[in-house]
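Researcher: Please predict.
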Amino acid sequence: MRYRIRFLQFLFISVIALTPLSPSYALDDAIIAVVNDEVITLKDLRDYIRQTYVSLVAEGVEEQQLKAMMLDLESDGINKLVEDRLILTRAKTIGIDVREKLIDQRLGEIKQRYSSEQVFLDALVKNGANITELRSKILDQMKIKFVVEHEVKSKIFVNPQEVTEFYEQNKDAFQKSERVNLESIYITFLEDKEAARLRAKEALELIGQGTDFLEAAKQYSDTPSVGVVERGQLQPAIEEVVFDLKENEVSSLMEVDTGIYIFRLKGKIPAETAGIKEVKDQIYKFLFTKKFKDSFTQWLQGLRENAYIEIKQ
């Protein structure tokens, strides 16, 4: 018995990890969960994980994020599939429908990430999927999105008083460090450091002789001016110098790994607290997101409590 349990555990982990298994209709048909009057088989779980993976790849999700999302599915795939089934059932109950035009539009957006139609199709085949499966996944995703927007997101409201109160209670979070506004000349080393050093020295000498800094920058600089920066954004050696410059003062040559800088200080901006007008949108998004997460969790719990759910051990 212990051997059998260990074997099944190994087999289940293999399924979650998307490792191909030997064909077995009996195994595929094994019931692993029941949601209301709907059964979920091992094949359903395998298809769900595979289709999710294919959808994320097709949409161009970055590799690091993709790995994290798939690891999450490895550990909690059954629960996530059950939740999706609950939400899709709710969408059906309230009559959520998705027009084919919207699916075509979303599919077109995904295709645009690829250089050609054939490259897109080849990518699907490579990941063991096809257009029909991708369309099905898009349909489910849209139904879930629409029902969540209808039943949760549309009922969330953040009033201006909440934004003001959050700002007043968290002013320390909106502190802005001391900043400097810098004009700069940057001469890259490329392949010849000595030539770059000669050019930088020439530029500095011209400025010292009265040539306007911006005119010298047009002639010598390989990049636009640095502009406004705050403490912590520059290399420590550079920061120590530029924050100590007086207004309109020009620095000496400052060499870094890739080239040479010359700076001129246009002005300093003291540390200050950002005004509420500057951060109100940021606060609103934060409060809205928090309310949404809380409301969604409660709504989903309600769906669970009003459903019959059995997950097989």
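Model: Residues 63-93 form the longest helix (31 residues).
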